[in-house]
Amino acid sequence: MTNKQAFQSSNDSNLITLSVISNQNSLEHAHRDIELVYVIKGQLQVKISNEQYQMSQSDILLINSNEFHSFQSDKDNLFVVIHLNYTELSSHLTQRSLVFHREINNHGYLSQEIKSTIEELLQIYIKRKQNNAELEILEKGYKLSSILTSRLLKNKEHLEFENQMSTKGQNDRLTDILEYIQVNFSEPLTLDEVASTHFISSPYLSKFFKKRTGKTFSQYLNEVRLAHAVNELTNSVKPLTRIALDNGFPNLSAFNRVFKEYYKQKPLDYRKKNTLDKVEVDSQEDNQDTRAALVELEQYLENIPKAPIQVKVETPAKEQKQIIKMGKMNAFMKYWNKLINVGYAKDLLNSDMQEQIIFLQNELGFKYARFWGIFGDDMLVEDRSEDKVSYNFTNTNKLLDFLVKNNLKPFIELGPKPKILSKTIEDSFIIQTISNKTLEEWGNIARAFLLQCVDRFGIEEVETWYFEIWRPNMNFVVPGEQGRREFLENINNNILKEPNQFEEYYKVFSMFKKIANELVPSAKVGGCGLSMNLEGDKLDLLLMQWKKEKIQPDFLSIYLYPIELETDKNHIPIRNLQSSNPNYINQKLNQVKKSLIMADMEELELNVTEWNLSISNRNFLNDSCYKATYLVKNIIDNLAQHKINMIGYWLTSDLFSDYRDSKNFLYGGAGLLTKNGIKKPSYHAFVLLKQLGEILVSKGENYVVTKKSGDRYQLLCFNYKHFDFSYYLHPEGSMGIKEQYDIFEDTDLLDLSVEIQGIKNGKYRIKEIKLNRKHGSVLDEWLKFGGVEDMKPDEIKYLKEICIPSMNVKHNLVEDNRIELKGTLNPHEIRLFELNLLFE
Predict the structure, then answer these.
(1) pLDDT digit string, tens, across residues 754-765
(2) Which CATH number fits domain 172-274: 1.10.10.60, 3.40.1490.10, 1.10.10.10, 2.60.120.40?
(3) What are the pLDDT digits (tens) for 55-102?
(4) pTM score, two decimals?
(5) Topology classification of domain 316-334+678-840
(6) Peptide bond into 453 cis (omega under 30)
(7) Which CATH superfamily groups domain 5-157+279-310?
(8) Cβ of 661: how many Cβ atoms within 10 Å?
């Protein structure tokens, strides 16, 4: 008797299902999932469509979605079948058609990489009593998916080229029809329906189909349905009737008839002979055959040679040698240190907050301070005690006086925006509210405010300020990609009906800008604070409509947080909404640039008024060295790439998010300074960026070289690490404070060597500054201190003094017009070299 055993594992997300099978044969079948076959022992014959594959120990084979395939086992074999959920993969990759290269070189590095990951899966699998086994299997499933998609997935251009070659001299319509059947086989399809869908007659389709495939439409449809039904017969416990109906058969009787016609046996008999004996995890020890198979699996894993798998033959160590020759150099604008978000208006009257802002301004020297809530109820501006409303600008003047006195020009966001404290993407506190006002009431208070500002500070000063008109987030206005394409097509054809999604905002904006133009004509008035993560798809529509308005903005404002929200109700929910794209900021800015060009608003000033790695004020990554490299990487990546006037970091201090749940010394606030005024790595990142010159010499993946007047050069380099698969398995901010560095793609050092050629000979003074986990990290110093909650004043003072980067100075004599700067950077490290020519 044939021995059939499978030990199956799955998880709630259905990303991955793993089966270990011995001596199993199967009829031709198909399924939506991507399938990997890995042989542990013996021989296995696999047929895919009309191709035969003979597999032996350690061989791997990939089977694409909906491909007909079957297994034929030789005596005494053991193999692994892994299913990757097609729908979830497609959702994560935002690519509808997923087709992989099938064959894998079983002796190459890629094969070793895949095998290693499968073996990691199996190691976890046999430790079946561990509580976290399912989560670990899911993590390895993401890793395996990433390897396959990055190395074997055919991109859209590849598929288009293959389609062109395969259909050369053929009718492309057949491909569309077959794909339609594959997608809709479970529905009650008819020849007439398919013909109508593809705009041809039924007789023509019948004749065409038989000629092209050698089968009738009904024969082909039944084969597709049977292939999927066979898969469910052997891999599910569904009743036969349910299997029949789910796969497009009208009833069980029809299913039985067609199945027997094709396979010469009844579905029930086939299931009894071929269904895998699925053994529950907790009862596996009670089954002798199962124990024997598990022993074989464990022995196989124990005997795997480890060293060859761990050596990356084809990918060298992360070493970079850069040679930079002095040539034409261009000046650039430092767009990152012009604007800083300081928070909610009422908070800025707090003496602790003002003290930190003064300190920050003295050290970093921003030009504009952005805030909102200046007409909030807690600012006590409106006096309604009498019949006529009067205004008291005492508190607003205190705030504005403070900023102007400290060389910070106001960047005021106007509107009924509350103070929102975000713990996570889905969990926020609304701390303050602003009373609703009519459009006329907003106009009255705005006019009175500007008049008193001109009277107090002078028109010359107020005309240098920025005013951003707030707009609450709206729902999507163009449903789906097809709707968006139709909208853009209508724009191009000048037949777009005037939509009204933004009418209310345009009214408020136009009202305020008219008042500003009258009283302070040169002041900048713009909006609308579009959240690119939530509303990026609305940008084209917003700009197209705004272009038609009489009152035009002086600038466009957007927010950039690397968040990707899933909006398709059919997609599987994402556990962590943080974007997995390390180049999210750059790509979003490219999107904005294209939208401005499309709307003929390319010259409109662009201000990113908020940006950070997250909206959360309860994420310990905000306190880590990772945050510093995230800031530096994105600022350098976008240097001289986009016409950004300014980009405003969110935000100055953790005092903004100090609330009843923030009793700890560190709690993941987004500030550059802790609530106690200790400098975070993100603060030090801005200090190092400030040292850059205004002339761009060169930049690369991990560095930038700039020049100041005279012979002064600066090299800023960094070792950025992006998140690995495990990070996206957990809700944002749920990782413990001691686990913040366990969620990254690797821990590789970066050996960087930059040779600058063409500089003057002479004696140079070289200053080297290092920011890493040992030097300048408040999170790591606090953990070394014990991570205690009851910090005393002298202990806080101690941490203030030691949380600084390291620094050393040396002198170097240049005699052949070149100098080489070298360093080995730890993960999440930033390093600055400053070269100053002392004398020739």
Answers:
(1) 999 999 999 999
(2) 1.10.10.60
(3) 888 888 888 887 888 888 877 888 888 888 877 777 666 566 677 876
(4) 0.67
(5) Immunoglobulin-like (2.60.40)
(6) no
(7) Jelly Rolls (2.60.120.10)
(8) 12
